Amino acid sequence: MTNIEIDGKQVSVPTGGTVMDGATQLGIYIPYFCYHKKLSIAANCRMCLVQVEKAPKPLPACSTPAVEGMKVSTHSAMAVASQKGQMEFLLINHPLDCPICDQGGECQLQDLAVGYGASASRYTEPKRVVVNKNLGPLISTDMTRCILCTRCVRFGQEIAGVMELGVAGRGEHAEILTFVDSTVDSELSGNMIDLCPVGALVSKPFRYSARTWELSRRKSVSPHCGLGSNLVVQIKLNRVMRVLPRENEEINECWLSDKDRFSYEGLNSEERLTTPMIKRDGQWQECDWHTALEFVANGLKAVQKQHGVQSIGALASPHSTLEELYLLQKLIRGLGSGNVDHRLRQSDFRSDSHLQGSPWLGMKIAEISQLKSALVIGSTLRKDHPLIAQRLRQAVKQGAHLNLINPVSDDLLTNVTNQAVVAPAAMAAMLAQILKAAAELKATKIPATLKDTVSSISVTDTARAIAASLIDNKPAAIFLGNLAQHHPQYADIHMLAQHIAQIAETSFGVLGEAANSVGAYLAGAVPGLGAVGIGGSSQVGANGNNASQMLGMSATPVAEPCRAFVLMNLEPEFDSYNPQQAMKTLAAAELVVMMSAYKKHVTSADYADVLLPIAPFTETSGTFINTEGRVQSFNGVVAPLGDARPAWKILRVLGNLLQLDGFDYETPEQVRAEIFLAGSDVSTQLSNRLGSFAVGEIGQVSEGLQRIGEVPIYQADPIVRRAESLQRTHDAMAPLAWMPGALLDRLGVQAGDMIKVKQGDGEALLPAARDDKLPANCVRVASAHPLTATLGAMFGEIMVERL
Amino acid sequence: MTQLTQILLAGLNPSDPNDWRLRNYEQREGYTALRKILNEKIPPDAIIGEVKKSALRGRGGAGFPTGLKWSFMPKQYEGDKYLVCNSDEGEPGTFKDRDIMHHNPHSLIEGMAIGAYAMGIRTGYNYIHGEIWDTYERMEEAIDEARAAGLLGDNILGSGFSFQLYNHHGYGAYICGEETALLESLEGKKGQPRFKPPFPASFGLYGKPTTINNTETFASVPWIIRNGGEKFLQIGKPNNGGTKIFSVSGHVNKPGNYEVPMGTPFAKLLEMAGGMRGGRKLKACIPGGSSMPVLPGDIMMRTDMDYDSIAKAGSFLGSGAVIIMDDTTCMVKALERLSYFYYEESCGQCTPCREGTGWLYRVVHRIETGKGRIEDLDLLNNVADNIQGRTICALGDAAAMPVRAMIQHFRDEFIYHIEHKKCMV
Amino acid sequence: MLSAESLKKIDHEVTKYPADQKQSAVMSALAIAQDEKGWLANETMDFVAHYLGMPAIAVYEVATFYNMYNLQPVGRYKLTVCTNLPCALSGGNDAAARLKQKLGIGFNQTTADGKFTLKEGECMGACGDAPVLLVNNKRMCSFMSSDMIDQLLEELSK
Ligand SMILES: Cc1cc2nc3c(=O)[nH]c(=O)nc-3n(C[C@H](O)[C@H](O)[C@H](O)COP(=O)(O)O)c2cc1C
Ligand code: SF4
Ligand code: FES
User: Fold this and answer.
1) Nearest residue of C to residue B167 by CA position?
2) Chain A residues near residue C46 by CB distance under 8 angstroms
3) Mean pLDDT, residues C8-12
4) How far is C70 from chain B (nearest CA, A)?
5) A566 near A303, Cβ under 8 Å?
6) A376 close to A479: Cβ distance less than 8 angstroms
């Protein structure tokens, strides 16, 4: 610690700290533009000049190290004169267009100009004009306003991990731009808008839609990935106008992914469902709530009566709130069925009966930043969990090892120490190698149950290096990504990874795919898992069918197929493991009740019978439990659109109509109170351990071509699918059929040629694309997209043909 | 290359196109200092001590004591350290390093090798001004010669000491003469100065401890080691050791480089340069390169050419570029050109320099073109005040000082310009 | 994209720097590329970026920062004449005027036959030889009186 004095007040700054750090600790305000606590120091704006005793000239607080005994004045005549001098320089070339600038009202320059600027300009020459740049659909530029603080450039290099913006030219001609008009494609790009202290970079979707002082600010929580980023949602006239980060150092820090930031456009989509609708004689008709709910209740009763309780099933999206999921399972279980699930993209449920709790991150999110080694299995982390990827990137910068096992080798914009790009079918075998290597390195025995599986496997250098990395660098962690969770051998992968974690003594976690992936388990939105539930309150029903069984995807058909479905907050053609099969099953069902915020896809498909408009997260109160097990409740920030209603209320009324007990809630708090029994502790309900699951045969490689079907970042849930600006980004590009060059040659097609992709009885026409880093005989075709919804499973056999 | 060569340009025969070669250098006692050090295994500290004793001060502009700078390098540091020579000579009026490299390249190589030995450094770079391509090629050849002779590279002269030296060329940016901008440039980036601290001795090239000296500084070292620091000091004045090459340009009969002992009277130097062109009157002189304050002729004629004397007279010795202006020179026009230079060469990184240099130039330009206002003189001083001492590097000061000195010493001329919308001369 | 000879030169430059610091060779790589191509087109910069494993924008930053790089096509001979104060005191402006008059172009212009481009330069570190000018960044011409300029233009026009 270094003791210094600022404006007569004593403060101890951590060794290596600066004058600015001291001032921040004391709450003394020093004006600045280029400084940002999360970015490297540039010291280029010179606005933070202060007087330091014995220094002949003013010094920048942001970059002046605290030295024992230093005496600083931030408001002395010298300091103030210096600051005013810099402000004058910044303003001479800055346009006086505050009245039409989107930054107006939240502009650091505008704010400081009031305190430090002169009333009249002494600069009488013409002002500099800088041409605008097209940075893509998310960021709008007005480069004449740029004060060259380089925060945006440093953000790209240091946080996003990719240098897309730079400063070209020099002196007065210096300007911020991308290389030859390319766009900024980082999935974290929106943060540059927040960072820009002036109106040079502003939000394109928000541009000119409101003045900041007209907006009211409400707190919320992001419904997208498992992180649970904290949001400030800005409202005007009952409409969400903009979303900004709410700083939470333990979760999203001061950042947001573009998905969290710009998805709100989907809330205001034309496709919103605003009245209940019933399909009669093949025609969709609007109706009132009473009619719709009666229709549902009667329908469910009829199916129940005719086919028995087990013929009713419910599927919900893990982006739903805890309360919604809880009431849905309560309703289904109240009817006597155990068929309820939220894991629509999971395909391997063999380990269900071995689960000891809700799978979770296995550690605190913030601890990721401290890791010294990590093994990520099955994830393009940057796209699945942009801010977790960001934390790992920072850890890597501090020397951490990042090890990867994935069927694709997308650039994670960080150094990767060891990487095994293997076919999906070889992933489990790769883990077995690592397990073997780890056991050798630690001189421990491989658990007896795995002996047979592992004994014949030979260990590659990569596997040994990964094992050593995890053993030698602590703290270390192993994470199962989204792709691993969708994988047809998920249970084996999970079990092997768990053993590696045990032997290598690392933390072990499952990266929550959706905002409420953990909460969905705890709410009981899984078939018959006795051990799970918060405080043991959930009614554990008879063993039910899982999503795969309900939708007829599992290899072994169930005795009593579902004939009536309640679907909540999901679009099965995009949100399920095998959309082809899901659509078939749903089309054959007698009753399909859609609780959805959107009508498109549903009204055009022929599987649904009734549509109940539900409120998205901004229009209802609710709770998400994020991937680290953190419970975050929020309130609606606007009233529901049209006749849409919060899903928990709809389920309550349905419960009453079906004459089920325990549906007399008046407030969401009452629902919550029922979920969280007094004294219950979420952390005791989290576990990634599979009890005694026996790993199956691994390593057998099938003959034909294998699909790698990942979920594109902006197709992952119904809201983001309708966020128009995000849909215009590079990441939302229509899917291509990616193949290694050898495969293209074999087919006799060239990158860019249209080819036919076939799975089951469906096919899609897609342009071929070349990626030589893909494993042999693999075809990468994204799922969750309208162009590929006709296809089958996300993994497994696929065929390609030239046209 | 001209005249009175004592240390740096000693014994050179300008008419012999091969005089720069290793063989010729060795005939001039070249590499004896390095051989002696390596043969006798002279302790590094003793070398630094000798350089300290010589009172050699940095010839790049700031005049920082070289021995002291060398002693800042961490001794116990494990890992790479770097030695960098600043041959980016771009300060208007300065052209001495070019002559050293062109005519006596091995003096630089030997000086750097000695410095590297003294500081425990194994790798060095010589950053050469982009515009002097033939000099770059000459240095490449000279390094090849030295390497072939076992004077550079691994295990030099079988001593176990290794030193790799490479040339790197600039490509047109004055700012890269600033030592941290130079380091950035060496790293393959824009030449934007770094803020200090940290100083290069702790965080330099590639983030490693680094020492940077000017070409002339390094080239002085072999002589100091051969003849002793004391002797070097005696050539000059206390605290101002040795000889110094002054690059004399402008209105003289024989512009060129003149190596003279520190403390030589300016009048003598002017005489060596052939006196004023056309016998005209000396009006003004910038004694240390364009970044330094201008001094009126009469003050100059009373001044000696060393760091302390010139500072006392109100300017700085800087890089030793002596720009001579006779009474036909319009000082407003002269300042306009210099201000344009700093405006043009500002890297654009920090606010006061980026915005201020353009402002200064525009106001001077306004006065020069007859559109000036009398308040402009105060404005210029005030803008200069807001730049000087506020910038990341000293280019801001370099832009501000000439403005203030010109107005201070030639105010009448500026007022005349404003009032009559034309030149006084 | 670049000739084998240029690549060899770039490879040589790369050897001057630590193995993980290839970027250090970007200035010479761009200079070598420019010598071959005459100027730095976007594709050329992109190529250099890939070759050295740098972000393209970082190469662009460098190319736009140092003013001896040509980001636009130039004539066969780019003549850069120094007009800075020390040169100006010894005829730098006269040399520039002579060039403008003889070539019939101003600064930053190229003659109609595509032969000459004229540039105003800053101090080249050769003020003692004023007036000075550079031909294609590499060849320094000293003491450029009107006669010398005429001679030079004649030589280059051949
Ligand atoms: C704008 C600017 C330009 C400079 N140009 C040069 C230069 O061309 N050559 C040089 O040796 N030093 C130059 N310097 C000084 C260097 O920063 C540094 O002080 C010097 O290289 C140190 O070497 P020395 O101690 O041997 O003088 C310049 C400084 C500034 C601020
Ligand atoms: S665009 Fe904004 S953030 Fe980027 S340098 Fe300019 S002012 Fe700073
Ligand atoms: S905040 Fe210190 S210089 Fe910008």
Assistant:
1) C16
2) 179-180
3) 98
4) 11
5) no
6) yes
A584-610: per-residue pLDDT in tens?
999 999 999 999 999 977 777 789 999
User: Subunits touching A (CB < 8 Å, at least 3 pairs)?
Assistant: B, C
Could you tell me which chains touch chain B, where touching means 3 or more CB pairs under 8 A? A, C
CA end-to-end distance (rounded Å), chain B: 33
Q: Is the peptide bond before A786 cis (omega within 30 degrees of 0)?
A: no
Rounded-to-integer distance, Cα A606 and Cα B376, Å = 79
- Please give the distance of CA A419 from its chain centroid, rounded to a whole number: 23
Residue type, A651: L
Nearest to A687 by CA among A469, A449, A518, A487: A518
CA angle, corner A17, sides to A14 and A18, nearest 5?
140
Interhelix angle C92-103/C146-157, nearest 10 degrees: 40
Ligand 2 atom 4, closest CA: A152
DSSP-assigned letters across all residues of B274-324: TSBGGG--EEEEEBTBTTSPPEEHHHHHT-EESHHHHHHHTS--TT-EEEE
DSSP run (H or E) holding A497: helix A490-504
Mutate to test the interface with B, among C61, C85, C140 (most CBs of B within 10 A): C85
Q: Does C57 contact A169 at a Cβ distance shorter than 8 Å?
A: no
Angle at A431 between CA A430 and CA A434, to 5 degrees: 95
Residue A217 to residue A212: CA distance in whole angstroms: 10
Instruction: Kindly provide the ipTM of the predicted complex, given to two decimals.
Output: 0.95
Give the separation between CA B82 and CA B77, rounded to whole angstroms.
12
Question: Which residues of chain C does A164 touch, with a Cβ-Cβ cutoff of 8 Å?
Answer: 55, 57
pLDDT digits 0-9 by tens, B113-139: 999 999 999 999 999 999 999 999 999
Would you call A379 exposed, middle or buried from its count of C-beta atoms within 10 A (0-12, 13-18, 19+)? buried
Nearest to A524 by CA among A697, A674, A692: A674
**Terminal-residue alpha carbon distance, chain C:** 30
Residues in chain A where the model's pLDDT stays below 70: 529-542, 678, 699-701
Residues C130, B247: Cα–Cα separation, whole Å: 12
Residue B95's closest chain C neighbor by CA? C125
Contact C125 B90 (CB under 8 A): yes
Question: One-letter amino acid identity for A504?
Answer: A
Residues 6+ apart with CB under 8 A from A119: none
Among C24, C17, C59, smallest CA distance to B186 is for C24
| Chain A nearest CA to C140, separation (Å) | 25
The H or E element that residue A567 is part of is: strand A564-568
pTM for the model stands at: 0.95
- CB contact under 8 Å between B341 and C121, yes or no, is no
Q: Residue A171 is nearest to which of B346, B389, B392, comparing CB atoms?
A: B346
For the record, the structure tokens of C142 come out as 């000293």
Check if the beta carbon of residue B170 is closer than 8 Å to that of residue B185: yes
Q: How far apart are alpha carbons B400 and B408 in whole angstroms? A: 12
Q: Which amino acid is at B260?
A: V
Q: Are strands B82-87 and B123-128 parallel, antiparallel or unpaired?
A: parallel
Provide the strand spans (E) within chain C.
77-82, 109-110, 116-121, 133-135, 139-141
